[in-house]
C-alpha cells in the first residue's frame, strides 16, 4: 500500500472511521468531534453544543460512526445513539442512553432482501452494540412528505391569490 494523503483530523486519537459516498470520510475523535472530510478538507462537523443544546460540550464523546450514503449513524461513550442525514448532519433520530455504557460499534442494516424485510415500512435501521453486551435495533420512521400533486396545487393557489390581491390593491392591474 502507498500513502496518498495525510492530514491532522483531530486533536488526539481517532475512535472510528467510515468511508462514505463521493470519496467522503467520517471520523469520530477523542476530541469530542465527529467530522466529514472530502480529501483533506473539512466538509462539516458535529459539535455537542450545536446539535444537542443543553448538554455540556465535554459530557459526551462520539465513539462509533457509520455512513450508509444517505444517513450517518453515531454511538457515544455514554450509550447514546443518533442518526443524522449524511450531507447536512441534520439529526433525525436520537436515543439518550440507549445502552447502559459505551457504544462500541454501529452498522446499518443492508438494503438486501432480508434487510428490507427487517426494515418493514421504516426508512433505515441501525444496529448498535455496546459494552453492556447488548445489540439493539433502531428503526428510523419514514419521513412524511407532501405529494407532488398537492404541492403543485398549493403553488397554483398561491399564484391565483397573489393575482387577486394585486388586482384589489391596484385596480386595473390586469
UniProtKB/TrEMBL annotation:
Pfam families: WD40. The keyword Protein transport applies. The chain crosses the membrane at residues 146-170. GO terms for cellular component: endoplasmic reticulum membrane. One of its GO terms (biological process) is regulation of COPII vesicle coating. It is a single-pass membrane protein. It is found in: Endoplasmic reticulum membrane. The keyword Protein transport applies. GO terms for molecular function: guanyl-nucleotide exchange factor activity. It comes from the Eukaryota. Keywords: Endoplasmic reticulum, ER-Golgi transport, Membrane, Protein transport, Repeat, Transmembrane, Transmembrane helix, Transport, WD repeat. This is PREB protein. It comes from Pomatostomus ruficeps. The gene is Preb.
